[in-house]
C-alpha cells in the first residue's frame, strides 16, 4: 500500500512540475527576451526600439561575425585615444624613427641590442621599451629575428613598431590599457 501511495505522489509531483514549466514557458510568448523580465527592476519597457537601445558609447562595437563578448574581451588589444598635441608629436617622431630603423635594417642590425641605443638617442628623454619580436599565438608562439618597440610620447601617445629582416615600421597610437606602449602579446 505504501508503494502505491509513493507512486501516486511522485506522479502528482511530476505533473505539477510539468504544468509549472509549461506555464512559465508560455508566459513569455510573443515578447522579445528583453521585454520578458523588464519589470523585475521596476523599469517598464515602452516596447519602442529607442527605449531599449543601449547608449552608443556604452560598449565598443562588435564585428558582426565575432563572439558575443569579443569587443569587451579584446579591449586590451586596442590603443587608447591620443590628445591632438601628442598625436602630432608622435606622428612626427614615427617618421624619424622609421627612417633611422630602415638604415639599421639595411645593415642587418635588427636585434634589441642594436635598436635600443638608437631609439634612446632619438627619443630622449622619452621612456623607450624594446623587446624581441614575437610571432604566432598560443602554443605555437615564439620569438622571431628582430625587435618590437614602444616609445612614450607626452601623456597619451606612443610610437609603436617593429623591425625585422624585410621591413622597418613605426606608427603613432595611444597607450594600450595593460601594456603601455608595447602591444599586448598575441593570444589565441
Automatic annotation (TrEMBL):
PROSITE patterns, per the entry: PROKAR_LIPOPROTEIN
Give the signal sequence positions.
Answer: 1-27
Keyword Signal annotated: yes
Compositionally biased region (Low complexity): 38-48
Skewed-composition ranges (Basic and acidic residues): 74-96
The protein's superkingdom reads Bacteria
- Keywords of the record: Signal
Region named Disordered: 38-96
The answer to keyword Cell cycle applying to this record is no
Q: What is this protein called?
A: Secreted protein
The organism of origin for this protein: Streptomyces typhae
Amino acid at each position: 500500500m505504501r508503494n502505491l501511495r509513493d507512486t501516486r505522489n511522485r506522479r502528482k509531483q511530476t505533473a505539477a512540475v510539468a504544468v509549472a514549466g509549461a506555464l512559465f514557458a508560455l508566459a513569455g510568448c510573443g515578447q522579445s527576451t528583453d521585454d520578458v523580465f523588464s519589470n523585475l527592476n521596476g523599469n517598464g519597457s515602452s516596447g519602442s526600439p529607442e527605449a531599449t537601445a543601449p547608449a552608443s558609447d556604452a560598449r565598443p562595437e562588435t564585428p558582426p561575425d565575432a563572439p558575443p563578448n569579443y569587443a569587451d574581451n579584446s579591449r586590451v588589444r586596442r590603443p587608447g585615444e591620443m590628445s591632438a598635441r601628442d598625436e602630432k608629436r608622435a606622428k612626427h617622431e614615427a617618421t624619424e624613427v622609421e627612417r633611422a630603423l630602415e638604415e639599421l635594417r639595411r645593415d642587418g642590425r635588427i636585434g634589441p641590442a642594436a635598436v635600443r641605443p638608437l631609439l634612446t638617442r632619438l627619443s630622449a628623454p622619452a621612456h623607450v621599451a624594446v623587446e624581441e619580436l614575437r610571432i604566432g599565438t598560443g602554443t605555437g608562439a615564439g620569438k622571431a629575428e628582430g625587435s618590437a618597440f614602444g616609445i612614450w610620447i607626452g601623456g597619451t601617445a606612443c610610437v609603436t613598431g617593429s623591425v625585422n629582416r624585410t621591413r622597418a615600421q613605426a606608427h603613432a597610437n595611444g597607450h594600450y590599457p595593460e601594456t603601455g606602449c608595447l602591444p599586448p602579446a598575441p593570444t589565441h
